[in-house]
Design a protein that fits this description.
about 110 residues, alpha+beta, Alpha-Beta Plaits, 4 strands, about 45% helix, about 30% strand
Length: about 110
């Protein structure tokens, strides 16, 4: 059974601009993004801007989130290293939200 996670991140100073730029870069590099998602066993990944635009909500779903995280840490893909750098430059983790239910109808 697949697992899902939703995390709230607050923007660091100048983080909103940096994160929007990086989000645009990800959308331009979809081939690389999908290659890394397959490598990690990730089913879906999405990022949502909060209504007050001071934070983002980051969603990820995978068959095994622990395995996905380990694969991302060990990844040799340049885009994974760039993504980690962009997240640390732009975002500060606030909280992980509790998943009450998640249904995967693949």
């Amino acid at each position: 059974m697949s697992e899902a996670r939703l995390i709230k991140f607050r923007f660091k100073p100048d983080g909103a601009k940096k994160w929007r730029e990086w989000s645009g870069e990800l959308k331009r590099r979809t081939e690389e993004v999908f290659e890394t998602l397959r490598n990690e066993g990730v089913i879906a990944e999405a990022c949502f801007l909060s209504a007050d635009q001071d934070a983002v909500y980051y969603f990820v779903a995978a068959e095994d989130l622990g395995r996905a995280e380990e694969a991302a840490r060990r990844s040799s893909f340049a885009i994974d290293r760039e993504h980690t750098l962009a997240k640390s430059a732009a975002l500060e983790r606030v909280e992980q939200l509790e998943c009450l239910f998640f249904f995967d109808n693949r």
